[in-house]
Amino acid sequence: MHSFTTLMTLASSTLLLAAHALAAQSAPPTPPLPAVPQRPPVDIAICLDISGSMEGLIDSAKARLWSIVNDLATAKPAPSLRVALLTYGCDAYDSATGWVVVDSDLTEDLDLISQRLFALKTNGGTEFVGRVIDKAANSLSWNQSTDALRIIVVAGNEAADQDTEVTYQNACKTSIERGVLVNSIYCGAATDPITPAWSDVAKRADGQFLCIDQSTAASVPPTPFDKELGELSATINTTYLAVGERGRLAWANQAEQDRNAAGLGGGVAAQRCATKGELIYDNSAWDLVDGCSQGTIKLEEVKDEDLPKEMQGKSLDEKKAIVAAKHAERVKIQSSIQALQAKREAYVLAEAKKQATATGATLDDALRGAIRTQAQKKGFVWAAPTQPPPVQP
Q: Is the pLDDT of residue 56 over 80?
């Protein structure tokens, strides 16, 4: 009897194991996320004069950041972009550093750059162009790859040669020796007596000289597609899975920068949404979807308490399934954003041709042309513009 009971127990166990094996075969594990292709690096350090007369430049940088990024996003191959922000010419800064501050080192977190831009306040001071170029060239974590495009953009409206301790000539020499180009933007008239020195800044570091009127309106013209793009911008935020406290703060800042962009008008919010529709909007440092795709986050290594609440207590396969579902949802939303953005760009181009005026170059107009020229030398390609078809809103 005892042997019979043991035999039946073994048989039951065998059947149970077989059932589990069959269930595992009928429910294959979630496939890994598609790997993001290797993208050539682009590092851009933006150096802004925030002395008392530069409100217009700061407003333009806030409004036009996403337009500049979006133009880079259309390059082939798609770049891996990092941006740094430095400010100078503020009396509240330390005179020992030449009144220069690194507001953010080079980062792929574009929302952080937006946050720092919106926090800027002007305060009259001495503008040491040489010092800010030297600081950017020597203190930032530049990508050292030979394929990397490294650019400093320095903008201001006072004489570029005020700094006698660290001259712009020496700073530019150091910068180009490190493989970092310098683009100079003078916010004033091309006929001003101090314009030639600003031009010389760019010449000495193989850069481009740009002259803009900082009083040119920073607002972005509205289009019939802005409302829907603004809605998609909020929708795509729901596909992000924040990791840890850093992730939760970054996810909250994502929504905050949406509000900041919307506060500047529907056109700026739409441009920001367009950025979210591209690979260049990279949150792999804190988001599970981007992080797992790029291999910067290993899901199996993330502590349960650092996961979003809806993922805590789940098996690894269940967690992978949640990440995969969010990835699929995001790809679908990004496709909708890209389609709407194409219509929006066609509309903007058509309107610009109808309403062409001599209002002067804006910050993004100037920078897009300069960066394109430099990026093309690194092998980036932009599709030739085509005549857009009539656009129906």
A: yes
52 is a domain residue: yes
Confidence check: pLDDT of 316 > 60? yes
Which H helix or E strand runs over 308?
Answer: none
pLDDT(392) > 80: no
230 and 203 in one domain?
no
CB 69 within 8 A of CB 375: no
- Is residue 112 a part of any domain in this protein? yes
Residue 153 sits in the same domain as residue 79: yes
Give the C-alpha separation, 22 to 189, whole Å.
77
Which residues, 6+ apart, have CB-to-CB distance to 26 below 8 Å? none
Tens of pLDDT, residue by residue over 252-263, are: 999 999 999 999
DSSP 3-state percent helix, strand, coil across the chain (nearest 5): 50, 10, 35
List, for residues 278-301, the tens digit of each pLDDT value. 999 999 999 999 999 999 999 999
Q: Residue 18 above 80 pLDDT?
A: no
What's the CA gap between 157 and 168, in Å, rounded?
15
Task: Please tell me whether residues 191 and 266 are part of one structural domain.
Answer: no
Residue 77, both tokens: 């191959």
Q: How far is CA 346 from CA 48, 335, 343, 366, in A?
A: 31, 17, 5, 20
The pTM of this model reads 0.88
Structural domain ending residue among the three candidates 166, 188, 212: 212
For residue 152, pLDDT beyond 80: yes
Same domain, 204 and 241: no
DSSP three-state, residue 152: strand
Q: Judging by beta carbons within 10 Å of its beta carbon (0-12, 13-18, 19+), is residue 320 exposed, middle or buried?
A: buried
Domain encompassing residue 251: 226-351
Residue that has been written with the tokens 């305060």 in this structure: 123
> What number of other Cβ atoms are within 10 A of residue 92's Cβ?
10
